[in-house]
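Reopening: Transcriptional repressor MprA still failing for me.
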Amino acid sequence: MAPDGFVPTAAELRTSSSAGLVQRLLSAAHGLERRFDDCFSPLGLNLTRAEVLAYVARHGSDGCAQTDLAAALRLSESNICTLIERMRADGWLLRMRSNVDRRKSIVMLSPRGLDVMDELLESRRRQAAELLGALETGQLETLNRLLDAVLDSLAGSVTPSTSTIELRRAS
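Support: Ran it again with your exact input. Result attached.
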């Protein structure tokens, strides 16, 4: 059973209490994750795998260090290693040792990973437009400012729940 005060009451969810707002943000985040999992499913991907491909693609033909990828996605080394190995076995990624530092692994897109990028980005753009298309420009700007404030308050904070998120996202 959850400790008292952990789960917001129905009244808190309908007001602007901190607990209610955080719960609504978490609900929105979970909903977005499900929607993007569904969006990427026809490509044979989920949101986490799409994030990996997009991050690696941004680093071009030189690829990126596995440790940098883990840090960017807030996954542990063991979780990112497992995820990369699965994606390598599925043909999305290539992994090799760095020529500069043999202790480091470099991750690059495979030909299959390169081929799916345009479609992945277009799917993400369409889904985002569908989700936020009803908002006016001013509302989008306000939402951006508010989300920036929340993200700024989170910057640098690591919580014990991170490991739980990592386990869920490493699929």
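Strands lie at 64-65, 93-97, 105-109. If you still see a failure, please send the error message rather than a screenshot.
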